[in-house]
Amino acid sequence: MVAVSIVDQGPVSAEITPAQSLGHSTALAQLADELGYTRFWLAEHHGVRNMAIAAPEILIGHIADRTSRIRVGSGGVMLPNHAPLHVAEQFRTLEALHPGRIDLGVGRSTGTGDDPTRDALLRTPDGLERFGDHLRHLLGIGGRCQLPADDPHRALVASPAGVPLPPVFLLGSSVGSAELAARAGLGYGFFCVYQDPAVAARALRRYRESFVPAAPGDRPLGILAARVWVGEDDEHAEALAAPERLAVLDHLTGNPSPLEPVERALARRLTDAQRAARDTLDVRGDVVGGVDRVASRLGELVAASGADEVMAISNIHDPEDRRNSLRRLAVAAGLGPAPAR
């Protein structure tokens, strides 16, 4: 089986405040460290009521201090919101404090779904359109590539000098983003949420075919990220997924809300607008089931895509249910034997 990792979006429930969610993220990372997961990445979202993490770079350092082995990184830093020099300096600092354990994942989004928040975040009005330029500047300032002689950023050196930029991953959900990552010699993470997994397979194959090493020894590293819920059995897994799926429908129909308890989410009757929104969503990329079903589905996705690593996004209402899902995923992925009952 391939390596398996976690993306944490800091889920907020009706009973757990955003501040409390950050503590649960730390506990989850410590469990992932113990279970043998490869990475624990933290997402950046703003103004999203059921996601608590807005400053992953701060939480990365906090979690790296409290774990011993697992790689900790951003999944990702939304580059249109940040100056490339500042990102390079933040992650060189993290690398200096935790050498060999930090990852820098960057994305093109702003990490929000509403226009006022997006506009407040963008450091330049054309930040989304100039993502390629800003990525190149980040890599150049961080010492990963040489900028053109006439580029005014060429002479900049990110502090602390002499510390390498940690491994950089481009996060995307298209064949085009896969090609951009390949040309830059970066790692690549495909976000297979509300996407046909066949698109992920095409993108990851294209990434591997097009990869150009930025330095001797560079190799392609393709990650498939998907929503994953592992229950005691298949029915229990579907129940664990219900609060997150309902929260998405609430968001899409103009009523954003935290995650509800499983029983309440299962009992809630959908409105006509929510049923219409649900019918537009492609959930074929979701991995939901007991240990055996999840193991089988992960194997199918890896075989089709050639992914080097699978990264799970598991937003669950109850933190203990979430930790137990993580334990079952470790069994499904072959990280260890089933826990004693």
Automatic annotation (TrEMBL):
GO terms for cellular component: cytosol. GO terms for molecular function: alkanal monooxygenase (FMN-linked) activity. It comes from the Bacteria. Keywords: Oxidoreductase. The keyword Protease does not apply. Its EC number is 1.14.14.3. It holds the Pfam family Bac_luciferase. Residues 5-308 form the Luciferase-like domain. It is an enzyme of class 1 (oxidoreductase). To bacterial alkanal monooxygenase alpha and beta chains. NCBIfam families: oxido_grp_1 (TIGR03558). This is Flavin dependant oxidoreductase. The lineage of its organism: Bacteria, Bacillati, Actinomycetota, Actinomycetes, Frankiales.
